[in-house]
Amino acid sequence: MAIDEASYREFVSVRRRGLLRTAYLLTGDWHAAEDLVQETLTKLYLSWRRVRRREDAPSYARRIMLNAYVDSTRRPWRREQAVAVVPDRSGGGDPADAADPDTRSRLMRALAAVPPRQRAVLVLRFWEDLAVEQVAELLDCSTGNVKSQTARGLDRLREVLGPAQLASIREVR
């Protein structure tokens, strides 16, 4: 069975920017984010004919991205580097546009201090605006685990940012 390249190209043209923003929030680095998206799209292409319904493709791509991200955090050579300023790579419609550069920078530094699994949960819950059940399915874990990881991740953000700064960032979102 041949791959439907037209539908794959359409998916990439519509979803690539959103995948890149999510990957950036996970990795904290645009180059690593682009690598993660490239790896995601390559794996998605190789399994495209298995995506039965095209409306399932975004969820399938997120799962591939999260698995690749978690795998990359286990690599011993991986080193995170917090950036001083988050580059503005968005093209409108990006909720991060509402925040000033200082706020985005503080948030990215704080996210870099959150363990990878908790960071993935926070990004999916609060950036991608997914329900607990959807995050659990994507990460192949229980809803209780998602809630626990969310609470721990938010606790870590509070430690790094302080409660007042975390509240102000939530209001910007």
Notes on the structure:
This protein is mainly alpha-helical and 173 residues long. It folds into 2 domains: 1-79, Rna Polymerase Sigma Factor, Chain: A (Orthogonal Bundle), CATH 1.10.1740; 96-173, Arc Repressor Mutant, subunit A, CATH 1.10.10. It contains 8 helices and no strands. The chain has helices at 5-27, 30-46, 57-73, 101-112, 116-127, 132-139, 143-161, 163-172. Helix 6 (132-139) packs across helix 7. The chain is globular and about 55 Å long. The N and C termini lie far apart (44 Å). The model is unreliable at 77-96 (pLDDT under 50).
Structural class: mainly alpha
Could you tell me the strand content as a percent range?
under 5%
N-to-C SSE string, H for helix and E for strand: HHHHHHHH
- Average pLDDT level: 81
Task: Please mark out the parts with pLDDT under 50 across 5 or more consecutive residues, or reply none.
Answer: 77-96
At CATH level 2, the architecture of the largest domain is Orthogonal Bundle
The CATH topology of the largest domain comes to Rna Polymerase Sigma Factor, Chain: A
Q: Helical residue percent?
A: 55-70%
Question: Count of DSSP E strands?
Answer: 0
Overall structural domain count: 2
End-to-end span in angstroms?
Answer: 44 Å
Summarize this, please?
With 173 residues, the protein is mainly α. It has helices at 5-27, 30-46, 57-73, 101-112, 116-127, 132-139, 143-161, 163-172. It folds into two domains: 1-79, Rna Polymerase Sigma Factor, Chain: A, CATH 1.10.1740; 96-173, Arc Repressor Mutant, subunit A, CATH 1.10.10.
